[in-house]
Amino acid sequence: MAKVVAVTGNEACANALRQVNPDVCGIYPITPQTDMMQRFASFIADGKVDTESILVESEHSSMSACIGAAAAGGRVITATSSQGLALMWEMLHIASGDRLPIVMPVVNRALSAPLNIHGDHSDAMGARDTGWIQLWSENGQEAYDNTIQAFRIAEHMDIRLPIMVCLDGFIISHSIERLEYLEDQQVKDFVGPFKNFLPLLDLAKPKSYGPLILTDLYHEYKRAQHEIMTKVKDVVLDVAKDFEKMSGRKYDIFESYRLEDADIAIVILNSAAGTTKDVIDQFREKGIKAGLLKPRLFRPFPYTEIADALKHTRAVCVMDRADSFGGYGPLFMEVSSALYQADTKPLMINKIYGLGGRDYLPSHAAQVLTELNEIAKSGSVKTVKEYLGARE
Amino acid sequence: MKAKGWRELPPGSVVLEGGSAVKFKTGSWRAYRPIWIEENCIQCLFCWIYCPDMAIKVKEGKREEFDYDYCKGCGICALECPGKKGKKAIEMVEEGK
């Protein structure tokens, strides 16, 4: 029986991690993630899990400790945000290059400078090219469900890659929502016992991690790493199917909302998708065929599937809660790359919104949908990339 | 030997055997060469313990000549060598001199 609770996103993720009961956890505090690892540390102290905690002096060390523990042969977790993820950067590449299935909730927060502790996607977008799988979560329920599914995806014998579960800082991590918890035993049965793959501590079969590979083979190793990413999508869908059987909650590689017959559409990640859906309903009532696409699997990016879902529309706005200064927003770049390969394609604009936790309001969504409606009618785009709601 | 294709590589570039350092000779990195002065050697084997590679050959409990194929010239053996009556049994000499 599912247990209905009122909890924050951080509390929900900490509980998912408790239910999985991993072997090792690298712990270092950073706002707004701190509360998640603090709760998990309480579970360790209270004997609710047998996890060995490694308290470290930085996130660089935290990820290093996780890499060592995962190579040794353990089920390993950590969590971080913002500057912490940025400090992990070089180790993130090692975790993926070594094929270590580390699970890490990332509570999305803006990057310095100027210093800001609130929710935006600059941190995880900066880790886009590190070889990690990325799942994104609209609310606390999705963050909880994604965290549980993440273990099955990362630890799948055909995959063995590290995975980030992204949720919006404060907006989700610190807001209390209604949530359904699974039973502890259900989660244990779902993730199953950890299966080892090339563990260092198998002393009968000595091995080394992290060799020097130069011009003769490095290119081939990266080709092999790319190949693994091409297999992730099917595993994500299989795991989602099993998860739906257990929980009744359905997951895909992205969510389509009133998109099938839409003329105009917004593509948006995480918590802001919820606000946008409400405004889309209002536009539908006015007779405007608006829809939404919310990516869940951002790495690997499902180019073909997303192009198929959007190619019938007339105008699309991709909304980014992060910027690539001097470039388009990172989500826009992916969606426009996807649609370039399609036989028909909509006109496209890119809005940068909500940086540093700036509120994203229904009026913002309405402004974008109104502009999209005009673009669809006129057939022309004035400005491709603009900041939404920035004061003049 | 034919170079391996990307489908034939071990996952995560993991080396699936022990002692594989023997296949990789690092002696060409050396800028300073350790010289063993046998008359000052008390056979304490500190050099063998401290050597980070496998450059000290030992036979029947006694050290022999350096194996220069594996000596990077780090100088740790020369530093640790207690020698005999204040005279070191290992000295570092610049390569090419």
Q: Biggest interface, which chains?
A: A-B, 22 and 17 residues
CATH fold-type name of chain B: Alpha-Beta Plaits
Oligomer class: heterodimer
Class of chain B in CATH? Alpha Beta
Shape of chain B: elongated
In total, how many domains does the architecture of chain A comprise? Answer: 2
CATH architectural name of the largest domain in chain A: 3-Layer(aba) Sandwich
Would you report the number of β strands of chain B?
4
Estimated structural class of chain B? alpha+beta
Largest sheet features of chain B: 2 strands, antiparallel
Total helical elements of chain A: 13
Distance between the termini of chain B: 37 Å
Q: What Rg of chain B do the Cα atoms give? A: 17 Å
- SS field, number of helical segments of chain B: 2
- The top-level CATH class of the largest domain in chain A is Alpha Beta
- Beta content of chain A comes to 15-25%
Q: How do the helices and strands line up, and which of them pair or pack?
A:
The complex is a heterodimer of chains A (392) and B (97).
Chain A: E1 3-8, H1 9-20, E2 24-27, H2 34-45, E3 52-55, H3 59-72, E4 76-77, H4 82-87, H5 89-97, E5 103-108, H6 122-126, E6 133-136, H7 140-155, E7 163-168, E8 176-181, H8 184-191, H9 218-247, E9 254-257, E10 264-267, H10 272-285, E11 290-295, E12 297-299, H11 303-310, E13 315-320, H12 330-340, E14 347-352, H13 362-378, E15 385-387
Parallel strand pairs in A: 2-3, 2-4, 5-7, 6-7, 10-11, 10-13, 13-14, 14-15
Antiparallel strand pairs in A: 1-8, 6-12, 9-11
Chain B: E1 32-36, H1 46-50, E2 56-59, E3 62-66, H2 76-80, E4 90-94
Antiparallel strand pairs in B: 1-4, 2-3
